Amino acid sequence: MAGSALWFFLLLAAALAGRATALWPWPQYIQTSDLRYPIFPHNFQFQYHVSSAAQPGCSVLDEAFQRYRDLLFGSDFWHRPDPAEKQHTLEINSLVIHVATPGCDQLPSLESAENYTLTINDEQNFLFSETVWGALRGLETFSQLVWRSPEGTFFINKTEIEDFPRFPHRGLLLDTSRHYLPLSSILNTLDVMAYSKFNVFHWHMVDDPSFPYESFTFPELTRKGSYNPATHIYTAQDVKEVIEYARLRGIRVLVEFDTPGHTQSWGPGAPGLLTPCYSGSQPSGTFGPVNPILNSTYEFMSTFFLEVSSVFPDFYLHLGGDEVDFSCWKSNPDIQDFMKKKGFGNDFKKLESFYIQTLLDIVSAYGKGYVVWQEVFDNKVKVRPDTIIQVWREEAPVSYMKELELVTNASFRALLSAPWYLNHITYGPDWEKVYMVEPLAFDGTPEQKALVIGGEACMWGEYVDSTNLVPRLWPRAGAVAERLWSSKLVTNLDFASKRLADFRCELLRRGIQAQPLNVGYCEQEFEET
Ligand SMILES: *[C@@H]1O[C@H](CO)[C@@H](O)[C@H](O)[C@H]1NC(C)=O
Ligand SMILES: *[C@@H]1O[C@H](CO)[C@@H](O)[C@H](O)[C@H]1NC(C)=O
Ligand SMILES: *[C@@H]1O[C@H](CO)[C@@H](O)[C@H](O)[C@H]1NC(C)=O
Ligand SMILES: *[C@@H]1O[C@H](CO)[C@@H](O)[C@H](O)[C@H]1NC(C)=O
């Protein structure tokens, strides 16, 4: 470890002297030199060897090669080199990708290895990985290593990289309920997630304001709960497209259907599901969280989550469980009776636990794992030992670092989001605070630290729709991406600022309208796509 730290600092010194390429996120081990090799797009090809008998083709790699060829060379594909330059340099005309285990038609999972080794030297140019997912990460790195001379020739320097993620769950949350995001916004986000090596799209699909998910078992939910059932919904075809688009980029889709709170939009399409609130002895006409005392509620949830479990193939579902407002439950005489019968006294957390417990049992029976927001843990709901707890509250009831300590001490796995709410913006380079968070800076044993499987950047949608999503996300989310991928030693802000600014320029070149980090300019601003 001491050796690798020294190596890192030597590289850092070289980078600060202005010699590093703009890699983002920074790899675990890298060695580069000034020896450069030209690449002539018309001569260059990607080749692959997937160790498997009679592999007819690998969609994940074939499509990635197409994407990266376009990203690298774009319309300059046929650019002719200066012949003088060709004579004294070794040309690189292929990158050979070796994948040890097949699985081109599978889905990435929490357990997928994303390691890769990239070698560019006089003898060979190859990318070695355990899985196709690792190959995707390596291809992205390769694409960031290629640079262009002022004359327009492409080059890559002699390089040796050994890379792997620090955390296996590197997520980004989009909220498609507070504002509907068109499919193109979601697909575009998945592209940039792949550029920054995020691997989980947390789809906070529905919430109080709207229900855009088109359910085939309960079509009334979207008909009555979406902003517009003709235009502002995600059809089965849309959902399939998102899942496949994500898969081709090594990204898992973790869908969230948050209950029992945050469910106002479910009400119109599912009569009887929500709790009627009372004003004195009369129903007030308004509704609260899901009604936890009716058998019909659990019948509904069984049917609904059976559908969700088959539509979304990832092993994990996110079941929400945050911010349940008890005032409506308190006002309802039937709920009061139920509380008495169950011996819950006046403790509405017990009623919430009763609901969540039953829901978790339903979902477990479908062979799924689940992620929940931290309140489920705080309220001492009995959950399966393999539950993942997502920590999102900054301070209450305790600081998020203390919460990580408590969650892992109880042997649960944890995800950190509290310091990474990117919908919060402040004047100045606010990515720095996000970047400097050290997710394991809590008191705990090595076993506890190993239970933190990663984290998520969250982009809640109150003040965000497709007009401002891209510049608000990028490059700021990149700060979280690097924190979750790179070594914990990579914390130098000067080093990061320069690379993140370069990464942002590269995003512009790739057609992503990422906002500036500070004063300055990019060589290629606002390229048409
Ligand atoms: C690549 O090599 C060129 C010279 O051939 C040098 O100017 C540049 O700094 C090198 N880049 C890296 C990342 O080493
Ligand atoms: C990936 O790299 C990590 C860190 O070096 C190592 O612990 C792990 O065994 C590697 N996994 C594979 C599949 O190579
Ligand atoms: C609800 O289900 C429970 C357990 O299956 C049963 O004991 C109870 O009678 C049911 N209540 C109603 C109102 O149907
Ligand atoms: C950790 O958990 C144990 C029980 O497993 C408990 O005795 C101890 O108080 C907990 N520590 C903290 C800091 O919560």
TrEMBL record:
<comment type="function">
    <text>Hydrolyzes the non-reducing end N-acetyl-D-hexosamine and/or sulfated N-acetyl-D-hexosamine of glycoconjugates, such as the oligosaccharide moieties from proteins and neutral glycolipids, or from certain mucopolysaccharides. The isozyme S is as active as the isozyme A on the anionic bis-sulfated glycans, the chondroitin-6-sulfate trisaccharide (C6S-3), and the dermatan sulfate pentasaccharide, and the sulfated glycosphingolipid SM2. The isozyme B does not hydrolyze each of these substrates, however hydrolyzes efficiently neutral oligosaccharide.</text>
</comment>
<dbReference type="GO" id="GO:0030214">
    <property type="term" value="P:hyaluronan catabolic process"/>
</dbReference>
<keyword id="KW-0732">Signal</keyword>
<dbReference type="GO" id="GO:0048667">
    <property type="term" value="P:cell morphogenesis involved in neuron differentiation"/>
</dbReference>
<dbReference type="GO" id="GO:0001501">
    <property type="term" value="P:skeletal system development"/>
</dbReference>
<feature type="active site" description="Proton donor">
    <location>
        <position position="323"/>
    </location>
</feature>
<protein>
    <recommendedName>
        <fullName>Beta-hexosaminidase</fullName>
        <ecNumber>3.2.1.52</ecNumber>
    </recommendedName>
</protein>
<feature type="domain" description="Glycoside hydrolase family 20 catalytic">
    <location>
        <begin position="167"/>
        <end position="487"/>
    </location>
</feature>
<dbReference type="GO" id="GO:0007605">
    <property type="term" value="P:sensory perception of sound"/>
</dbReference>
<dbReference type="GO" id="GO:0042582">
    <property type="term" value="C:azurophil granule"/>
</dbReference>
<dbReference type="InterPro" id="IPR029018">
    <property type="entry name" value="Hex-like_dom2"/>
</dbReference>
<dbReference type="GO" id="GO:0005975">
    <property type="term" value="P:carbohydrate metabolic process"/>
</dbReference>
<dbReference type="GO" id="GO:0030209">
    <property type="term" value="P:dermatan sulfate proteoglycan catabolic process"/>
</dbReference>
<feature type="signal peptide">
    <location>
        <begin position="1"/>
        <end position="22"/>
    </location>
</feature>
<dbReference type="GO" id="GO:0004563">
    <property type="term" value="F:beta-N-acetylhexosaminidase activity"/>
</dbReference>
<dbReference type="InterPro" id="IPR015883">
    <property type="entry name" value="Glyco_hydro_20_cat"/>
</dbReference>
<keyword id="KW-0378">Hydrolase</keyword>
<keyword id="KW-0326">Glycosidase</keyword>
<dbReference type="GO" id="GO:0006024">
    <property type="term" value="P:glycosaminoglycan biosynthetic process"/>
</dbReference>
<dbReference type="GO" id="GO:0050884">
    <property type="term" value="P:neuromuscular process controlling posture"/>
</dbReference>
<dbReference type="GO" id="GO:0050885">
    <property type="term" value="P:neuromuscular process controlling balance"/>
</dbReference>
<dbReference type="InterPro" id="IPR025705">
    <property type="entry name" value="Beta_hexosaminidase_sua/sub"/>
</dbReference>
<keyword id="KW-0443">Lipid metabolism</keyword>
<feature type="disulfide bond">
    <location>
        <begin position="505"/>
        <end position="522"/>
    </location>
</feature>
<dbReference type="GO" id="GO:0046982">
    <property type="term" value="F:protein heterodimerization activity"/>
</dbReference>
<feature type="disulfide bond">
    <location>
        <begin position="58"/>
        <end position="104"/>
    </location>
</feature>
<feature type="domain" description="Beta-hexosaminidase eukaryotic type N-terminal">
    <location>
        <begin position="23"/>
        <end position="145"/>
    </location>
</feature>
<dbReference type="GO" id="GO:0008375">
    <property type="term" value="F:acetylglucosaminyltransferase activity"/>
</dbReference>
<comment type="similarity">
    <text>Belongs to the glycosyl hydrolase 20 family.</text>
</comment>
<keyword id="KW-0865">Zymogen</keyword>
<dbReference type="InterPro" id="IPR029019">
    <property type="entry name" value="HEX_eukaryotic_N"/>
</dbReference>
<keyword id="KW-0458">Lysosome</keyword>
<dbReference type="GO" id="GO:1905379">
    <property type="term" value="C:beta-N-acetylhexosaminidase complex"/>
</dbReference>
<comment type="subunit">
    <text>There are 3 beta-hexosaminidase isozymes: isozyme A (hexosaminidase A) is a heterodimer composed of one subunit alpha and one subunit beta (chain A and B); isozyme B (hexosaminidase B) is a homodimer of two beta subunits (two chains A and B); isozyme S (hexosaminidase S) is a homodimer of two alpha subunits. The composition of the dimer (isozyme A versus isozyme S) has a significant effect on the substrate specificity of the alpha subunit active site.</text>
</comment>
<dbReference type="GO" id="GO:0019915">
    <property type="term" value="P:lipid storage"/>
</dbReference>
<dbReference type="GO" id="GO:0007628">
    <property type="term" value="P:adult walking behavior"/>
</dbReference>
<keyword id="KW-0325">Glycoprotein</keyword>
<dbReference type="Pfam" id="PF00728">
    <property type="entry name" value="Glyco_hydro_20"/>
</dbReference>
<dbReference type="GO" id="GO:0016020">
    <property type="term" value="C:membrane"/>
</dbReference>
<keyword id="KW-1015">Disulfide bond</keyword>
<dbReference type="InterPro" id="IPR017853">
    <property type="entry name" value="GH"/>
</dbReference>
<feature type="disulfide bond">
    <location>
        <begin position="277"/>
        <end position="328"/>
    </location>
</feature>
